[in-house]
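New here. Your pick:
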Amino acid sequence: MRRAAVILILVILFSQPVLSGYSLEESITVAESRISFACLIDFEDEEELQGKLAAIDLGPSPGLGQEKQFSRQYLEYLLRRENIDFNSWEIPDRINVKTDLQIIGERELKEKIKEKLKGKIPGVIVDFTRGVSETAYPRGDLQLSLELGSSFRVPGNNTISLALFSKGELWKTIRIPVFLDRKIPVYLVSTDLGINQKLTEDNLEIKVMPESKLPRGFIPAGDEMDGYRTRRNLSQGSILCSHHIEETPLVERGAEIKIEIISTGFSISIPGEAMESGKKGDEIRVRNLFSGEVMQGKIIGDKKIEIEI
């Protein structure tokens, strides 16, 4: 019975991972965004044990000008918890940990944010309302992830969340207030226009402007203006808006028109007079110039009215 107990003890002892001859330094600099127990040791060929120690998380790495301290008692507690024999280790009473950091400056960070936003909002204009401070991150490749949130407004004040990743691990998240605007091409009146003047390339020009500077109802350049006319006097340089214009009527009130009367099996064409103005598809009143009768018809073309009976 005693012999079996001794054998069992020996099996347990020899099955435990053992480090021999390792001496931990009092001051350690890490390059990772999170500290594991493995960061505290300069390994040789202890792959199995290295993997086990790498799973012992000691929390995020300290930031710029900061350091973390770990007591010997705390580290020994973690080793005992993982059933690791540390009798041959030399562990100082306290270990100080710093991070090997590099700085990304304000200008570079702003440019990276603008680049990210341009991928989300075409033509975006970014105003950093409170500036952006330089920030530090663990030395190595830096990746940025930007979130706008579901209620962002353009134009308008917003707070964006910028996540910094180092070596695939989240390092920190920064919240940055910004005013977002965007460039939009619009129509400007290139010469003074009176009422009922047709809009053409000769009296309009295109200018790119911030959306926040545009009046309500502005018309983006690219919308077709052929077939529209002014509803009011417009001075040179005015931004063209929807309430400034109307479709040019195909039929003007008082104009001589052609009335097409259509019925089953026949159609006739008679001259008439428009009693109302209207565009294609509108129903207007017309007068038959032969009989003087007033009828209702639909505009189907330039000075053409159709009446079905």
